[in-house]
Write a structure and sequence with these properties.
InterPro entries: Glcn_transporter. By secondary structure, this protein is an all-alpha fold. It has 18 helices and no strands. It has one domain. The radius of gyration is 21 Å and the shape is globular.
Length: about 400
């Protein structure tokens, strides 16, 4: 059985270069700072005003993001070192993929962990982990909500969790259907998968492996139920950031002591690069709203157009630099003024951005190469691989967009 490749360091890298072509090959964060400077000077902003606006915008939400990203990446680093499997390997891997993608805060890590147990269902796992990471709390929705400034609202937290589940289930099913069609078109039901005998694995105690996620979900649920207790440490642990810290501490406790330093080093590298992108994006948003009155950015009451605008804006970010995590980190601060100006429900805005980030799984995304070299190793035509992975992601995105618009029109 082909083993999954190791996780590429570019998964959440904020330094991924732009595609070669007419534009200079520069990291995303350099592009964002450069565009911010050009926007300020083209708009006639004075030098001192530009510097003070850039400074205030850059540091606006870095503390909140640090409290989310550090424990999230500790979880990802510790769990990437485990082989998560079960006696009912294939079905368990496929069914658990969305939860793993969300809990590990990384589709790459979730896929790499579940792939050895997935057998013929590797594409099911790939699309399931992708959907879970994008839509299930506390992964994509929490990161985007923090960028939009709505992460601390208990009501919004409950709505993010429920709507995320409601979107994930049909989108994960759509991914499974697409995977079946893609394999069938290849002329053989097992063309891209090993024989069943090779998928038998030893039971590695799934309950223990997923204990950090159980603690995370329990703390979040209890926090929504009881609210504030008046005890600072308990109140912190019942918030998403505190629950993530508690889950990360438990995951570290389950990790051998000689492997913890490597987990910390990986966490610091991934977090620091994303904080640079977040800071640059926040500075761009601050300069933009200083030059352009926020009410002029989008017409009031244009809910549907605002959703489509946020969706398309996120698509542009995702296509430009590939990484889903960096897309979440960069687009939310830029989109925040649009959400404020439109009067759009913040929960709807969060998922408009999350759904836009589905498009697309292309070669500039590390997830493409992880799945391509494992689940689609037998494919010899790169265009067909792009069609399979991008086609499934686009199908999930468009289906989710339709469901989100229907929910906005009829229920929210």
């Amino acid at each position: 059985m082909a083993q999954p490749t190791s996780l590429p360091s570019t998964n959440t890298s904020a330094t991924r270069a732009m595609p070669a072509g007419l534009l200079p090959d520069m990291p995303l964060v350099i592009w964002m700072v450069f565009v911010t400077m050009m926007l300020a000077f083209a708009g006639g902003m004075e030098t001192n005003t530009f510097i003070s606006t850039f400074n205030s915008g850059f540091g606006r939400a870095l503390g909140e993001f640090a409290l989310i990203l550090l424990p999230s990446f500790i979880l990802a680093a510790t769990l990437s070192r485990r082989e998560i499997s079960s006696p009912g390997a294939e079905k368990a891997a496929a069914i658990g993929a969305p939860a793993a993608g969300a809990g590990m805060i990384c589709p790459d890590t979730a896929y790499a962990a579940l792939s050895p147990a997935a057998g013929r269902r590797k594409l099911d796992v790939a699309f399931g982990a992708y959907a879970g990471f994008k839509l299930l709390y506390p992964a994509g929705p929490l990161i985007v909500a923090t960028g939009l400034g709505v992460a601390g609202d208990d009501t919004a937290t409950g709505e993010l969790m429920l709507l995320g589940i409601a979107l994930t289930i049909p989108l994960a099913i759509a991914g499974v259907i697409w995977a079946r069609l893609a394999v069938r078109q290849n002329g053989s039901s097992d063309a891209n998968s090993p024989a069943p005998a090779e998928t038998k694995v030893a039971d590695r105690n799934l309950l223990q492996s997923f204990a950090p996620f159980i603690v995370l979900a329990a703390l979040l649920g209890f926090g929504i139920w009881v609210g504030q207790t008046g005890v600072p440490i308990i109140d912190f642990l019942l918030l998403p950031k505190g629950a993530l810290v508690a889950a990360a501490v438990l995951a570290l406790a389950q990790t051998p002591s000689n492997a913890r330093r490597a987990c910390f080093d990986s966490t610091v590298r991934r977090t620091s690069s994303l904080l640079l992108v977040i800071g640059a994006a926040s500075a761009f948003g601050a300069v933009l709203t200083t030059l352009v009155p926020v009410d002029d950015l989008v017409p009031q009451g244009s809910g549907t157009f605002a959703v489509l605008g946020l969706f398309c804006l996120t698509v542009l970010f995702k296509l430009a630099q590939g990484s889903s995590m960096a897309t979440f980190a960069a687009v939310a601060p830029v989109a925040a003024p649009v959400v404020v100006a439109s009067g759009l429900d913040p929960v709807v805005a969060v998922f408009a951005i999350c759904l836009g980030s589905f498009i697309a799984i292309l070669p500039n995304d590390s997830y493409y190469w992880l799945v391509r070299r494992d689940a689609l190793e037998a494919e010899t035509r790169e265009l067909r691989v792009i069609g399979i992975l991008t086609g499934g992601a686009v199908l999930q995105a468009l289906l989710g967009l339709v469901i989100l618009l229907m929910a906005m029109w009829f229920w929210l």
